[in-house]
Amino acid sequence: MDPSISLNVAALVASLIALGVSSIIAFQQIRLSRHANQIPVALEFLWKMRPAEFLRREENLWTELPKQDAELPFLDLPQPLRDDAQEIATFYQTISYLIALGVIDERLAILPLHYRAPKTWSVIRQFVMNERARRADPLSFLNAFENLVGIINSSDVDDLSGRLFRNAMRQ
After folding, report:
1. Is residue 157 within 8 Å of 106, Cβ to Cβ?
2. What is the C-alpha radius of gyration for the chain, rounded to an integer number of angstroms?
3. Residue 18 CA: distances (Å) to CA of 12, 23, 30, 98
4. Distance CA 4, CA 157 (A)
5. Contact between 160 and 107 (Cβ < 8 Å)
6. What is the pLDDT of residues 68-99, one digit of tens each?
7. What is the rounded distance in angstroms from the CA atom of residue 154 to the CA atom of residue 144?
8. Torsion angle of C-alpha atoms 123, 125, 131, 133, degrees rounded to 10
9. More confident call, 13 vs 91
């Protein structure tokens, strides 16, 4: 084989190897930066959810909403109950959007919310459905919160927890 052809083939192989290595590094960098973005978002969402006032207001919904007229649309709930329901439902709605956009890992949302979000949805559901009926649009109100509860209910929390913490211990 001609030395110039051998040199060209060697240069081509070296270029392909360099391209492969740089692609692998780029994909790892993308993965790391995605995870780096999750940390501040996750901390912010957990911080918002954990204050005693938030938990008290949510637990108040669990006891007070079942006492309301089941025919009321969500936005006709009495004050301050409506404000509490709106703020808490919007919090869960936002988490659903963050999952859908890939900003936070689904496991990171499901594990701390798997009890409270479905319980809250169960007490506001009828009022949400009434609001949607008034608007004549089934996707017009808190549909992302409903989707989040569906994801949570279809998840195996024990398996998610095990996988998450096994992966954390390996890193």
Report:
1. no
2. 24
3. 10, 8, 18, 36
4. 62
5. yes
6. 999 999 999 999 999 999 999 999 998 899 88
7. 15
8. -140
9. 91
